[in-house]
Amino acid sequence: MAENRRIVHHQILGNLPKKRIIEISCDGQKIKAREGETIAAALIAAGKKVFRYSVKKNEPRSLFCAIGRCTDCVMTVNKKPNVRTCVTLVEDGMDIKTQVGLGKRVK
Question: Mean pLDDT per 10-residue run, the chain (107 residues)?
């Protein structure tokens, strides 16, 4: 995954504020994330497009509503399935996996 696809300057909102950089892991790959951003934002900034595969047709899904109402962005986070990544903030050292179907809790 490529790094730094963030918008660093917005015409109305101004410059992206400085934040501490932390590291998360997605499907075994290390990703730099900004403290205080959502998992989905960090993954999209790193170039990840597919967050899960649907139950019936095994079709790829990604960020859709971005407000926690749908389940298109769910992933397995720290061995817990069905975490809505659009409303869950990153934490240093998080282990995130692309979810297939309903996901399974890993012990």
Answer: 72 90 97 96 95 94 93 95 97 97 75
Q: Indicate the pTM of the whole model.
A: 0.88
The reply to whether CATH 3.10.20.440 applies to domain 19-100 is yes
CB atoms under 10 Å from CB of 19, counted, come to 11
Tell me if 94 sits within 8 A of 78, measured CB to CB. Answer: yes
Residues 6+ apart with CB under 8 A from 92: 22, 23, 24, 35
Cα–Cα distance for residue pair 55/20, rounded to 1 Å: 37
Please report, for the chain, the start and end positions of each structural domain, with discontinuous segments joined by +. 19-100
Q: What are phi and psi of 48, to 5 degrees?
A: -80, 130
